[in-house]
Amino acid sequence: MILFHTGLQEIPQPDIRYGRKNADFGQGFYLSPDREFACRWAKEREDRSSVLNIYDLDEKDLRIKFLWRDEEWFSYIFANRHGQPDMFTEYDVIAGPIANDTLYDTMGILTSGFLSGSEALAILRLGAEYTQWAVKSEKALSRLHWHGAEILPKEEIALWRRTVQEEEKNFQELLAAKMQSFE
Asked: What is the pLDDT at residue 110?
């Protein structure tokens, strides 16, 4: 399986302990099987170029937990974001949808307590679904092989930033309509 990670540097040897513990799938090295989605994370910096790192993952004998936009997924994300112990420590890799509130500005409404769990899940199901893979174990990390990196041109980064802005605008419209349906 080919996977992508966008950042500000080449990462031939990722660290699964680097990064936020309160991310969707807890601490780990996050990748996407979707090159175009991975490019959406590119940022323009005067002093650094955005880099698309390319890997392959040998899935043989790895314990992979697949999640979908359902209650189990929502519970896992909610628990990780609130610093609770990882529910799936027996897995080497967690694969599933990215929570759209990390993609689009929802003003913290999903974790504010203003919405019920079912309402928050309904909002998280809105819009496009993008997949992430979180490499969580040393075993999985040993099966992740770096193939190299591409420097993303500024023109391509600008295109992806415009794409994200348009998606966010569309999402905000869906969010407003869904919020009105809760009244």
From this structure: 67
Distances 53 to 5, 38, 73, 145, 150 between C-alpha atoms, Å: 5, 9, 27, 11, 7
DSSP structural state of residue 32: B
Considering Cα of 5, then 11, then 16, then 20, what sign does the dihedral take? negative
Averaged over 7-12, what is the pLDDT?
94
Count of structural domains within the chain: 1
Quickly state the pLDDT bin for 102 (edges 50, 70, 90).
Answer: low
Distance CA 180, CA 38 (A): 32
Residue range of the domain that includes 89: 2-181
Over pLDDT 70: what percentage of the chain? 93
The SS3 of residue 169 is helix
Contact 87, 79 (CB under 8 A): yes
